[in-house]
Each structure stands twice: as C-alpha cells, then as structure tokens.
Amino acid sequence: MAHDTTAAPERPIWQALRRGWRRRCPGCGQGPLLTGYLTVRAACPVCREELHHHRADDGPAYLTMLIVGHLMAPLLLYAFMRWRPEPLVLFSIFAVGCVALSLYLLPRLKGAIVAFQWSRFMHGFGDGA
C-alpha cells in the first residue's frame, strides 16, 4: 500500500481569518478580497490566488444578525430599564445602531468566511492533498 508523501501546504486558520476580517486576500494578505461592498474578486491581483471558489452564501448575513441581536438586545433592555426614554427615541437610537453595526460587520464576516474556506481547502480552494 503506497502512501502519498506530498502534504498539502500549511494554511494557518487564524492568520487567514485575520486577513479575511481585514478584507484582504487570505493567501498573501496584501491584495483586496472584495470589489465593492460584498463582491468577492475572482482572483487576488497580487498573488493570483483564485478566490471564485467561495461558497459564503447566507453565512455572513446569519452571523451578522446573530452578533447584532446578541449585542443590541441587552443594551436595549438596559437603556429602557435605566433611563425609560420615549419609545420613538429608543427606537430611533437603536435602529441607527443596528443598521450601522450590521453594515460594519457584513463585509468583514464575509471575508472571514471566505478565508476560513480557503484555509480548510473547502469548495475547490486547492486539492487538500
């Protein structure tokens, strides 16, 4: 029984996640990962790593909702119990906060998910063997 002695190149997951969070290529960390707000580039312009294999789908949106909900709900309850503001004031402040936090997190979480897939050789990012 013959074993293949060629191992897959090491792709450190935490380094890739940090690069993805910064919206940089998970391979080199130099090239931009996204064109525009959420569109992933077909390939990195610096290292030529193909990025079109990603399957982020709805993952970034679900994670964004999870994080925003878990951060804003306790803050909303605290603000209501502490200061008892008018409902329209409370809604206005927290609506702006939720939208702003969502817009901040969405492209970063998309970059992190694409980087995670790259580091684990998922969905065509290298053959893994």
Overall pLDDT: 93
Provide a count of the helices. Answer: 3
Ranges with pLDDT <50 over ≥5 residues?
Answer: none
Number of strand segments: 2
Give the arrangement of secondary structure elements.
Blueprint (H helix, E strand, L loop, with lengths): L12 H9 L12 E2 L3 E2 L18 H25 L3 H33 L10
Antiparallel strand pairs: 1-2
Summarize the structure.
Pfam families: DUF983. This protein is mainly alpha-helical and 129 residues long.
Walkthrough of the structure:
This protein is mainly α. The protein has one domain. Helix content is 52%, strand content 3%. Strands 1-2 form a two-stranded antiparallel sheet. Helix 1 crosses helix 3 and helix 2 runs antiparallel to helix 3. The protein is elongated, with a radius of gyration of 19 Å. The model has no long low-confidence stretch (mean pLDDT 93). This is DUF983 domain-containing protein. Keywords: Membrane, Transmembrane, Transmembrane helix.
Identify the notable features of this structure and list them briefly:
129 residues; mainly alpha; two-stranded antiparallel sheet; 3 helices; 3% strand; DUF983 domain-containing protein; transmembrane
